[in-house]
Amino acid sequence: MGPVLDDALDELASVVATGSETELLSLLTLCESVARRVDAISTSAVAALDDQGAFLTRGYRSAARALSDLLSWDYVEARRRVAVASDVHTRTTLDGTPLPARLPSAAAAFGGGKIALRHVDVIGRVLSTDAARRLSPEQWALVEAQLAADATRLNPAELQTLGTALVALLDQDGAEPDDRVPAPVNELRLTRHAAGGSIKGRFQDPALYDAIAAVIDAKAAPLTADDDRPAPQRQAEALADVCGYVLDHGDDLPDTGGRRPVLTVLVRLEDLEHRARSAMLEFGGTSTPAALRTLACDAGVIPVVMNGAGQPLDVGRATRTIPDGLRRAVTARDRGCAHPGCDRPPSWSEIHHIHHWEHGGPTRLDNLVMLCRAHHRQVHHTDWHVRIRDGLPEFLPPKWIDPSRTPRRKVLAHLAAA
């Protein structure tokens, strides 16, 4: 922060101790005006960084999660600001073509300090409803301009009420009626692709659907306040977590099912000393090296040595990367996902090799840490690092989040009490 700005803020702060009631009231008005301008500048920076792919290059799938880590915002607040940035700032296509702001009238009012960030948030949400999407482009633009004007005199709650009523008035016919009767089916289709696969299902029996939905809903909740995974992603990973749990703990499953995913590692004979460079899952197709590194942390492995003609020379026996006794030791130490702030229990966590297994990392207690699937992926694909210090895992954030990279540890109740 520059010295001129510091001096200006110090001068404003001095009014609190010496100002009259009139001066204090004026100070509040001035602070709100300054805050609105600062929010406008901040969202401009967010939009520019997102447009440049700055968060993606640092391993983050969304700007909201990156901002949560960088600025210690709650995920809800980070997501709100990212949405506002997207709504009020121009964007650029892949070929460099500029696109206008989605909310041009709100953008002008927000940039001029006439309305607050929360006003823009309300306008964006009102105009993203199904009813608003049914309006003609002309009606939609008129509503956006009207709400931007009304926001200068209404608080966000009042603006929400007005906007909802205005959209409903213009959408008097409502959604187009659908008289079709759903097909009476209970089906689930699993389709294998080159990498991974897809699952599609329909359940006419509400009891069957409710049983599945209840389990997925229970396990698809955000892991932490700054878990920015979209709901479909959380639900998909929840289903995988549930299936993985059943494979590990289901005593009545057929013999082919009661184990974690098995990697069939295809190794060229001449590359054997360099460890695996590709892998094939029984149902999921060929895995990438990055996915292999994650899976190899905590999976069954069957080595298959291939010759130059693609013929198997040797097929090894299935082995568990993490022996059960060592898994129990890691569980006793970490008590679930070791990432600070995460509450995933051991049964929903995986074991990660700190020094990667494929690079010769040993399978021993001082090289292992327990992580949930989301934080396991984060450690593999971003600049977050984990290490064991004084017998306990600690995490180092990327420099762009914390230049000093101050280590962070999870607070464990049994150690805190001691």
Automatic annotation (TrEMBL):
<dbReference type="InterPro" id="IPR003615">
    <property type="entry name" value="HNH_nuc"/>
</dbReference>
<protein>
    <submittedName>
        <fullName>DUF222 domain-containing protein</fullName>
    </submittedName>
</protein>
<comment type="similarity">
    <text>Belongs to the Rv1128c/1148c/1588c/1702c/1945/3466 family.</text>
</comment>
<dbReference type="InterPro" id="IPR002711">
    <property type="entry name" value="HNH"/>
</dbReference>
<dbReference type="InterPro" id="IPR003870">
    <property type="entry name" value="DUF222"/>
</dbReference>
<dbReference type="Pfam" id="PF01844">
    <property type="entry name" value="HNH"/>
</dbReference>
<feature type="domain" description="HNH nuclease">
    <location>
        <begin position="325"/>
        <end position="377"/>
    </location>
</feature>
<dbReference type="Pfam" id="PF02720">
    <property type="entry name" value="DUF222"/>
</dbReference>
